[in-house]
Amino acid sequence: MNANTIRYRHRQSGDATIVVIPASLRYVEQMERCHQLAYGYTPAEADSEDMTAEKYAYHLQVFPEGQFIALDTTTDTVVGVATSMRVHLPRHSSFLGTWAEVTGDG
């Protein structure tokens, strides 16, 4: 399924204030901040494993259908982020690298 090419249909209950929707460039700064809050670090403490707005923007370019956000519709605020990627590894690969190693720093 290519979520980025299918028109989004609201499927939440009628009174939901938080909805899960495909991510967009409009929210990459909020996605970065959400990641910082979830993993307990400040921008000054960030390292190559941490997600930045630029990395989220790149993910949206490469694999848009794998990126989702939980959005508080009353404040237009990102309150959750789901990021995924597709990686082809040999079937019996023993490679268990870090996120930075697998993704080339994100």
Task: Describe the overall structure.
The protein has one domain. 25% of the residues lie in helices and 17% in strands. The chain contains three helices and three strands; from the N terminus they run βααββα. It has a three-stranded antiparallel beta sheet. The radius of gyration is 15 Å and the shape is globular. The mean pLDDT is 81.
- The DSSP helix count reads 3
Strand order in space, largest sheet: 1-2-3
- Output the radius of gyration: 15 Å
What is the ordering of alpha helices and beta strands? EHHEEH
Keywords:
106 residues, alpha+beta, three-stranded antiparallel beta sheet, 3 strands, 17% strand
Topology:
Layout: E1 18-22, H1 28-39, H2 53-62, E2 67-72, E3 77-83, H3 99-103
Helix pairs in contact: 1-2
How do you describe this structure in short?
With about 110 residues, this protein is an alpha+beta fold. The protein has 3 helices and 3 strands.
